[in-house]
Structure formats: C-alpha cells, structure tokens
From TrEMBL:
The gene is rpsU. NCBIfam families: S21p. It comes from Microbaculum marinisediminis. Keywords: Ribonucleoprotein, Ribosomal protein. This is Small ribosomal subunit protein bS21. One of its GO terms (cellular component) is ribosome. Belongs to the bacterial ribosomal protein bS21 family. PROSITE patterns: RIBOSOMAL_S21 (PS01181). InterPro entries: Ribosomal_bS21, Ribosomal_bS21_CS, Ribosomal_bS21_sf.
Length: 74
C-alpha cells in the first residue's frame, strides 16, 4: 500500500493511509488475528457475515426498486 506525501504534510498522508487501510479491512484482520480462533468458530463467524452481507444487499435492492420504504432521512 502506498500513500504520497505532498508538501511534507505527513498528517494528511497518515489520514489517507488510515482510510485506505480501513477500506481494505486491515484493521479488522489485525484484530481477528490477535487471538487464536477455533476453526468451528471461524466458520460460524464467516457464515454469519455472509448472511449479513446478503441481507444487506437484498434490502438495498428492494429499496432501489421501491418495494420497501427506507433509506436515509435528510
């Protein structure tokens, strides 16, 4: 991963790096690898995450098609 430092502005480059790492899921990965996770627990967690992603995608699709009221209120 690479971030360009412009005009010696390290703070801005650090913020950009953190944002990239957050998007890539590196922080979550580090947190998960901190302790050993049993294979059965890992499998259950990954299955639950997949279900959550599928439900979120279906909900967004339904909102886009106008089947379900929702979205953000401004």
């Amino acid at each position: 991963m690479q971030v360009i430092v412009r005009e010696n502005n390290v703070d801005q480059a650090l913020r950009a790096l953190k944002k990239k790492m957050q998007r890539e899921g590196i922080f979550r990965e580090m947190k998960l690898r901190n302790f050993y996770e049993k294979p059965s627990v890992k499998k259950a967690r990954e299955k639950a995450e997949a279900i959550r992603r599928a439900r979120k995608l279906a909900r967004k699709r339904a909102q886009r098609e106008g089947l379900v009221a929702g979205g953000r209120k401004r």
